[in-house]
Design brief:
The complex is a heterodimer. Chain A contains 12 helices and 12 strands. Chain A is an alpha/beta fold. Chain A folds into 2 domains: 6-225, Rossmann fold; 231-339, no CATH class. In chain A, a hairpin with a 2-residue loop joins strand 1 and strand 2. Chain A is globular and about 65 Å long. Chain B has helices at 3-18, 21-26, 33-36, 50-60, 62-79, 81-84, 118-154, 156-171, 174-185, 190-216, 220-227, 232-240, 245-268, 280-287, 296-323. The chains are: A alpha/beta, B mainly alpha. The A-B interface holds A 56, 58, 87-92, 95-96, 98, 100, 103-109, 117-118, 121-122, 149, 152-154, 157, 167, 170 and B 44-45, 47-50, 219-221, 223-231, 234, 238-239, 242-243, 245, 325.
Chain lengths: 340, 332
């Protein structure tokens, strides 16, 4: 097993609000290995973005607070690192693609200025000409047509898809080792999403960066990810390679997510949503946070009292689940797998 | 052309420039006059900067454009006062005192009690007053922007300290402080008057810039800049400040108008520019002793002050509309 390039250990992030302490992320651990694509899935507010933003020092503190845990980049702690060093990492070896390309680009600077700036910040002394040349090359790489001319244009002259391409170009400008893509396709329409997926693949081929793909789009995960982390109410509930997660999930929440997908091949009148609402992060249910919505628990006491740990399942060492009764899903899911 | 058509014509012109003349023409839009001027029918859409849009919107604001022209004329007249003025500002001619406005000997604005040519005095007054006003506006804007930007960006304790300082200065009774300050620092020197005024005027700018920065720092592109490894200084100067240029410029014009008036008031009370230097407020103060009989002594400098203040305000108005990117409609 190679050394992980990025590792979160027991990370807990809290926010102080007027309603009380929001437990955004609780005891989250996962590893990212060089060159892989790790999908982080969960619904809105499950802590998938906050876990990454916090280790990059991008959440406002206060009210945010990293209560416990550790984040290691190449074995070095990101949390105790000096601000200056962290700044050098950000946008350099550790860069990020944001969700909404409409608001993530500065409206008063040209696209070229913004990408060249990313280059110059990390390579002081780069000449304007060299930076512009690299910018044009990057834009061509991510598929922006007539890049030569478009570097001089402003974000409002770019379409959503083109802006996201520009954002990706900016993110890979300094050959990152880790690329965090925070819902990179959410703000785009479906046809453009497919194109952006291709651009992301190409970006990875080019840079060999490990990618953390934060999304609630299971289709995107299936398309890109090698391994998957499923989060619910700030905790990791299931972890495994993408094939096993899709084919034999061992957590009722993951099962619910799969069932709630619209399937083209099955003629169904209704979607099957997960019953209930995601919990408030101020007031997380006792025991397993998912128990009020769980169809597997059926009122068993242990689900209400004990927080399940993320443990190895019957499915092998690399497939972990935080469900007391993970094994019971094995039978259920062989049937579901056969149906699909 | 009715108003509606005119608007449409402008939109056409926008498309012609923005999307490329070819497209508009081939789709078969009625080719109006505005299109005839479209440069060449190249398919390449021309990259158009924010500023060209701003210029375009500003030039539609007729009142603002007119005011700008008047202001520029006044400024030129002020700057070249020594060359233009028929007489020196302190050239006495006691034999010909209190002459009413006349074409004779070019005493267009008459002469004052000491027989000095009043047109020349007013021209030099414009020079002094405008200089002070612009100096105050630039200095106050610079200080206010710096304080507001730092307070808004860092928020928390820094913000608290800087804003309480701002509040403190805002609560000071302006005129009393001005009078005291001019006694202590000595009045008469336009530079000193300018500094004193600027020290009072920066607070409003600081508050506005702080407000803008507080909202800007939550914007995603600022977070994105942080994630790209930009330093605080770079984020403030390169990413946030350019987004505030509109309000800052508008406010600067308002300060110019306010400074002219306050400087006039100060001079009127005798604490501003000292004789024999001419400043517009000082001229009115000196002229008031003449009463209604010597009406020209008060009227001409008063009118000039009014004209400058009005024009500056109109230009500010036009700039505000032009710099507001959500403002797509033209104004009459």
């Amino acid at each position: 097993m190679p050394e992980p390039i990025l590792e979160l250990r027991d990370l807990t992030v809290e926010f102080d609000t007027e309603d009380g302490v929001v437990h955004a992320v609780t005891g989250v651990s996962y590893q990212l290995f060089p060159g892989e694509v790790l999908g982080v899935v969960g619904e809105s507010g499950s802590g998938k973005s906050v876990s990454m933003l916090s280790v990059l020092g991008l959440i406002p503190m206060p009210p945010g607070r990293i209560a416990t845990g550790e984040a290691l980049f190449n074995g070095e702690s990101l949390l105790t690192m000096s601000k200056r060093k962290l700044r050098e990492l950000r946008g350099g070896k550790l860069s990020m693609i944001f969700q909404d390309p409409m608001t993530s680009l500065n409206p008063v600077l040209t696209i070229g200025d913004q990408i060249s700036e990313a280059i110059k910040v990390h390579n002081p002394g780069t000449s304007d000409a060299a930076a512009t040349k690299r910018t044009v090359a990057l834009l061509e790489l991510v598929g922006v047509p007539s890049a030569e001319r478009r570097v001089r244009q402003y974000p409002h002259e770019f379409s959503g898809g083109m802006r996201q391409r520009a954002m990706i170009a900016m993110a890979i400008a300094n050959d990152p080792e880790v690329l965090v893509a925070d819902e990179p396709t959410t703000a785009l329409d479906v046809t453009i999403q497919a194109q952006i997926v291709e651009v992301l693949k190409k970006a990875q081929e080019e840079t060999h960066a490990a990618i953390i793909l934060i999304t609630h789009d299971l289709g995107l995960i299936a398309e890109l990810a090698d391994r998957v982390v499923v989060m619910y109410a700030g905790r990791v509930v299931e972890l495994g390679d993408v094939f096993t997660i899709f084919n034999s999930p061992r957590h009722p929440y993951t099962v619910g997510l799969m069932n709630s997908l619209a399937k083209v091949d099955l003629d169904r009148e209704w979607l099957e949503p997960i019953p209930g609402q995601p919990p408030s992060l101020v007031n997380i249910p006792s025991g397993c946070a998912f128990h009020p919505r769980c169809t597997l628990s059926q009122g068993r006491a242990i689900c209400r009292t004990d927080v399940p740990s993320l443990r190895t399942t019957d499915d092998g060492d690399e497939h972990r689940s935080a469900c007391h009764f993970a094994e019971e899903l094995a039978a259920v899911h062989t049937a579901a797998g056969a149906r699909a | 052309m009715s108003n509606r058509q005119e608007h449409f014509g402008d939109r056409l012109a926008e498309q012609a420039g923005g999307v490329g003349g070819v497209q508009t023409a081939t789709v078969g839009f009625p080719v109006g006059e505005s299109l005839a001027g479209a440069p060449d029918l190249v398919a390449e859409p021309e990259a158009r900067s924010q500023w060209s849009y701003v210029r375009m919107r500003f030039f539609r604001h007729k009142l603002a454009v007119g005011s700008l022209v008047v202001l520029i004329l006044i400024a030129i007249v002020g700057i070249f006062a020594p060359q233009i003025a028929p007489y020196g500002f302190d050239e006495l001619d006691l034999e010909n005192s209190t002459a009413s406005p006349t074409l004779e000997d070019w005493h267009l604005f008459g002469t004052d009690l000491l027989g000095r040519d009043y047109l020349s005095r007013v021209l030099y007054g414009i020079r002094t007053s405008l200089w002070v006003a612009v100096f105050v506006a630039v200095l106050a804007t610079a200080v206010g922007t710096a304080v507001g930007a730092v307070a808004g960006y860092y928020s928390g304790t820094v913000d608290n300290l800087l804003m309480r300082l701002t509040d403190l200065i805002l609560t000071l009774p302006g005129l009393a402080v001005l009078l005291t300050a001019s006694v202590y620092f000595g009045s008469g020197d336009p530079l000193k008057i300018g500094i004193i005024l600027a020290l009072l005027f920066w607070t409003a700018v600081a508050r506005i810039v702080r407000g803008l920065f507080l909202s800007l720092r939550e914007k995603e592109f600022v977070e994105a800049a942080k994630a790209a490894g930009a330093s605080d200084a770079r984020i403030i100067l390169r990413h946030m400040l350019p987004n505030c240029v509109g309000p800052i410029v508008v406010f600067m014009t308002l300060i110019v108008a306010a400074a002219i008036l306050v400087e006039a008031a100060l001079s009127f009370l005798g604490f501003g520019i000292q004789p024999p230097n001419a400043a517009l407020g000082k001229l009115i103060a000196d002229g008031q002793s003449g009463g209604l009989d010597l009406w020209w002594l008060v009227t001409f400098p008063g009118l000039v002050i009014l004209l400058i203040a009005l024009c500056v305000n109109f230009v500010g108005d036009g700039l505000r509309d032009a710099l507001d990117p959500t403002q797509r409609r033209m104004r009459a």
